[in-house]
Specification:
Helix content is about 30%, strand content about 30%. It is an alpha+beta fold. The protein has one domain: Aminopeptidase (3-Layer(aba) Sandwich), CATH 3.40.630. It has an 8-stranded mixed sheet, sandwiched between helices. The longest helix has 14 residues, at about 60-75.
């Protein structure tokens, strides 16, 4: 174990760890999701194309998305992703399942409006989360739907590797097969991506 890991995983740092911080860089703002954000987020989520490769393709429907949103609020680790240039809501993501013993945590439930695809918003948001999380944990896992090829390719570009498969029971939905991807702290800190989207 490298010396820098020992410094950054002291008990004091762990005690200060939270899964819903406020984060921003030049491209996006990650702001804790609030109940009042439903309409703004649903305006993004109501496009069926957003969900075409996700485990539940019906989340564009208001009643289905309402259940998804309720699960996000109850998780206390969900964010709205904001386009910093315009202030518009671009999507959402979530931190969950922190394991203090294993020094690991999960990122998932990410979606972006189609207007933000291929423009750096996803890697920017993920890099913000990873740079924050690796101050406290040694590895970050990602749940990605087995049919969500777009997200599998995107997370691989960040350096994550597929390490397993798991049936995931989404809040209020039937379990779906997910692939588990993982990034180790040492690998992330050694990558150029970790500094490309630095927090400000």
């Amino acid at each position: 174990m490298h010396f820098c890991l020992c410094i950054r995983t002291t008990p004091q740092r762990t005690m200060n760890f939270g899964i819903q911080p406020y984060l921003e860089n030049d491209i996006v703002i990650l702001q804790p999701l609030q109940e009042a954000d439903f309409e703004a987020l649903y305006a993004v989520a109501s496009d069926p194309k957003v969900w075409e490769q996700h485990p539940n393709k019906d989340r564009w429907k208001r009643d289905v998305f309402s259940t998804f949103f309720e699960g996000a609020i109850q998780s206390k680790g969900a964010f709205k992703i904001i386009d910093k240039a315009t202030g518009e809501v671009a999507g959402s993501t979530r931190i969950y399942d922190y394991n203090e013993h294993d020094k690991s945590v999960l990122i998932g439930y990410t979606f972006l409006g189609t207007a933000y695809w291929g423009k750096g918003f996803n890697p920017s948001a993920k890099a913000l989360l990873l740079n924050y999380l690796f101050t406290y944990v040694d590895r970050v896992h990602f749940h990605i739907g087995a049919v969500n090829v777009r997200s599998q390719v995107a997370i691989s570009r960040l350096g994550a590797r597929k390490v397993g498969e798991q049936e995931v029971a989404y809040y209020g939905e039937t379990p779906k097969l997910n692939y588990i991807y993982s990034i180790e702290k040492e690998e992330w800190l050694a990558s150029k991506i970790s500094t490309a989207f630095s927090e400000i």
